[in-house]
Amino acid sequence: MTSRARGTWGHARAVALFRAAPAFGQAPSVVATRPASTVPTAGYDLDFTLPTQSKSGCLVCHGDPDLVRLKAGKITSYHVPADQYGSSVHGSQQCVACHLDFAYKLPHDTDAAWQLTAKTACRNCHDEQFIAFGKGVHQRAVDATGTRASIEAAKPLCGDCHGSHGIQKLTDSKPGQAAMHASGWQVCGRCHQDYWDSYDDYYHGAAYKRGAEDAPACWDCHGWHDIRPSKERGSRVSEANLVETCGQEGCHKRSTVDEEFASYAYAIHNKRALKRENPVYQAIRSLFRFIWKD
Amino acid sequence: MAILLTKVNVWLDVIFTGLWLVVVVGLIGHFLLSIPTGRFRKKWILKEWPKHDWAPPALPKFMHFQHLAMMGLLGFSGMYIRFPFFDGGRTAMRYVHYVAMVIVGLNYFWRLWYAFFSKERDYKEFAIGKKDLQTVLGVGAYYAYLSNSKPHVAKYNVFQKGTYDLFALLMLVQGFTGLSLLTQPILFGLSPREVLLGWLPGSVAMAGAWARIVHYSVNWLFIILVTVHMYLAVAEDLPCSLDFFGLKKLEVDPDAFHHHDEHESAPAGLAAAHAEGD
Asked: How many domains does chain A have?
């Protein structure tokens, strides 16, 4: 099915991924710092064309940890940690390389498309990944309406999974790869909570959640940009492709794996359920509950 | 089949954990029963522990301690590999498992050499003969508090011999199944798993999965047997246990068993551990 190997980071995947950092996720984030003024700020005069590393331009304001605004009843931070961005793989890029719709006025983000633009700006450089993303289940149907529209709108954009200002280099970067590997909850789990919870078998899920470097992250089995629903034949975890997926380089040796073995994958998200269904386990649990209550 | 494999894994967790808890509760009950039967008073208050006519030699004690430490590490690291109970330990625990495996393996062969080829060879102490088999009911009755005397025909009673012999056998099984879990191509491009299990029908990975099940089950047998062994070592003969770990020298009485008719048939030179009560 695929020759992409866990642990080998092709250039295609190399630069668009992120570090699991506190600032991960959608920016701006919500913080509780201090009450913000509700008085609109007047226009200002700054040169936004300057490179960001010099802490001039955008970072004159956004480098300030106290840059907050009252938005929708919440204090919202607009701080961009300069050192974090500077050490990211995009640290040499100017802010407007991703914030394409930046305007010389305040506030910049009144336009609803602000985040959408920023979170999909990746496609301007990472076209291969964006094309693959278009084939996957997370691609939004742009012409959806009604209930479907809200479902489509909930689908993640590049930045929702990869983060924003702290994206780390992966190619030839063990720290970057390790951080990426450890970010299963931030990338997938926070949306797919039930699958995250059930990912609890002995040598895959339980080990992964305890930081095992060689235990697979979600995407090592399910794939990434062109990820398909598991019930579809094209999915890496569909029955038809399990042997290839389990036997990929860095996992089980391909020549030793057959369909019978690969069907053990059932346990990966079902061990908890199997345990709960086990009559002896139920009996012991009931006994302990009985003793504990009395 | 693989779903069966999955269910078997869950069943093993449940059954062995439950069984171990039953054993622990049973041993606590057994110890409590020693109070009304008078054994507690005799041993722990009047200090009437079993007599010995020969102290355990230093080398077997050293090997026993080394074996104990390594088996403890193997059990701990093995359980961690299956049930990771703290963060970031898988790689470290695997190395601990490998190192302990090598030491316990070397120790195993050293003990075999000692038992069969050394000057002090003691393999006969572990052999179960007709006389031992005749004592099964009597020894069982003693442990079950149905009798106050324990038949004594050798250094170890028939249950001890059976358990120690079973240990040696299970260690072989554990060594074979443990090596067959190694999937690194370290043997001319082949892994120990492929070499050891490649001849079986079906996929090697599937055979490895079943080998892991056996390995895990035997691990639990060790845990249960060692739990009973530790309890009996302390409850039945604390002074000997203390001597085994170098904490207190065992008092030796060379004529310990010449005053008791039932020990007359004990082989000369054996460190006969005698359960008092007769």
From this structure: 2
